[in-house]
Amino acid sequence: MPHHHNLVFMTLVVFGMVLSGLIYLVYTSTSHRYKEQRFCLKISKEHQENYLLQSPHGLSYNQPSVVGPDGNVVPLTPWLAPVVWEGTFDPTLIDSIYKQQNITIATTVFALGKYTQFLRDFLESAEQNYFVGFRVHYYVFTDQPEQVPAVKLSEEHHLTVLTVPSSNRWQEITLSRMARLEELIESRLVNEADYVFSLDVDTKFYGRWGVETLGRLVGVIHPGYYQTPREQYPYERRPESQAFIPSAEGDYYYGGAVIGGLVKDVHEVAKACREQLDIDASKSIEAAWQEESHLNKYFLYNKPSKVLSPEYLWQDFKPHTNEVKIIRFSQVIKNYAAVRPNP
């Protein structure tokens, strides 16, 4: 009998050891695989964040449509970036998602010379519609700081006035915007914000502009050209300019009144455009629509990760159209001769 007990005991010990070994092997391989998986996820996330939607020069493909043949708006670009229209997002849902991220949105506006007259309407309408309930920091570039109106800002909205020299040419004011944006990002925004929008001041908000507009790199479709054949876009057509785009190329015509995205990506845009502007200036060339021409060149070969529909950039003098159900942000009617320092 004792011999039989010993045999049973030894069998149980061996079985226990084998089972323990198997459990250990399964655990270590699972743990190792999980670590590997975590490592892969980390790599792919970094890869995703650095992923630029670059396309080569001279590539032949059909012009993207903003409105389909059935009259319905198109909610995606051919490179699968969302085009933000009314009805493509749920404000309650998207706000609740971004609320958890504790983000700051920097917003730059340039109000030089008589353009300071647009600041009150811009800021007061922004306070009603622009990233309501989120942290916003306005940076107002002006040569007349005393003309910046005292507008009541909501709790998490702040404003900083940055004084810059005056200019006798509106083109120079426009051309210097990219350089000033680049400098501001390097000196402050890299530490103070997550996203940045650079917006024209001679505008007004009429509806919600919220976190649905956030993305790595964001452009807006110009309201004047969203149903125009690309060969008729007002791109820079002189090959000697750095902003040159051949007539067979082009996606959308983007408005220079809105540039947005992650701070580091907007820095890339501003730096690239400023460099191209400097090269043109050294050859005494001024692109057809100054920095807007250079922005369109940049966006053609470095695709935005999100595109805003013309709801996010309208013009007050334009009649409503069937596809634009709501106007959120619009350029006000103005007498250029009265506000610009030169023709």
From TrEMBL:
Protein name per its UniProtKB record: Globoside alpha-1,3-N-acetylgalactosaminyltransferase 1
Annotated transmembrane regions: 7-27
InterPro entries (alphabetical): Glyco_trans_6, Nucleotide-diphossugar_trans
Entry annotated with the keyword Glycosyltransferase: yes
A Pfam entry, by short name: Glyco_transf_6
Residue ranges that the Swiss-Prot or TrEMBL entry lists as coiled coil: none
Cellular component GO terms held in the UniProt record: Golgi apparatus; membrane; vesicle
Co-factor: note: Binds 1 Mn(2+) ion per subunit.
Protein's GO biological process: carbohydrate metabolic process
Membrane topology: Single-pass type II membrane protein
Binding sites annotated in the UniProt record for an alpha-L-fucosyl-(1->2)-beta-D-galactosyl derivative: H222, E292
Entry GO MF terms: hexosyltransferase activity; metal ion binding
Names of required cofactors: Mn(2+)
